[in-house]
Specification:
5 helices, Rossmann fold, globular, seven-stranded mixed beta sheet, binds magnesium ion, about 200 residues, about 35% helix, alpha/beta, binds guanosine-5'-diphosphate
């Protein structure tokens, strides 16, 4: 598993999105939430995805081919600080259009910063994923920055926002630094793509 992971390309316009020849896992979340670090930690590669300590403004959709089994697609991050109406609309449109165009999304991975409550856009994203009936998991990123009681608190708090979530089923603490949650995600991918 995960023997040959390649960055394929970045796409900047919806019209350029390829019709995928493999099933797709999408990666979504606020910019700076740790999406690139998630990719690098999951595949154990340092610089597969570019990480940045300042919130990026690039709006590319980045494609990774994983063992010719599936595409991992890193969608543009949204609203770092304040969420403008315009951005909210842009992001909602982008994702809706993406979901319609790419009808082979088998999983959405939604990252939420474990140190902050879900933003308005996190909530809209969750609604969209449920409305589209897409299987999804929520990862509480950067969990290495929390102590034990903060971890329990964030799980409880996240469930108040998203009552459908069940810890270790579709809600996970994740840390790219410490590897928290990695095993669980690997097992999910293995069931989806490697055992059939
Ligand atoms: N402590 C800690 N920092 C992280 C973790 N994941 C990401 N970061 C940091 O958060 C910043 C943004 O990460 P990045 O992966 O570029 O976020 P992206 O914009 O969602 O792709 C970088 O400075 C990372 O080093 C994590 O699990 N733990
Ligand atoms: Mg990134």
């Amino acid at each position: 598993m995960f023997e040959n992971i390649k960055f394929i390309r970045s796409v900047f316009h919806l019209k350029d999105i390829p019709k995928p020849s493999l099933p797709v896992v999408i990666l979504c979340g606020r910019s700076n939430v740790g999406k690139s670090s998630f990719i690098n930690s999951l595949f154990n590669k340092k610089n597969l995805a570019k990480t940045s300590s300042s919130p990026g403004k690039t709006r590319s959709i980045n494609y990774y081919n994983v063992d010719d089994k599936f595409y991992l697609v890193d969608l543009p991050g949204y609203g770092y600080a304040k969420t403008s109406k315009k951005e909210q609309e842009y992001w909602g449109k982008l994702l809706s259009a993406y979901i319609v165009k790419v009808n082979d999304i088998v999983l959405a991975v939604h990252l939420v910063d474990s140190r902050h409550a879900p933003s308005e856009l996190d909530i809209s994203l969750n609604e969209l994923l449920r409305y589209a009936d897409l299987p999804y998991i929520v990862l509480l990123s950067k969990s290495d920055k929390l102590n034990q009681s903060e971890k329990s608190k964030v799980i409880k708090n996240t469930k108040q926002f998203f009552p459908e979530l069940i810890q270790d089923e579709n809600l996970f603490l994740y840390s790219s630094e410490k590897g928290t949650g990695r095993k669980e995600i690997l097992s999910r991918f293995s069931k989806l793509f490697y055992l059939s």
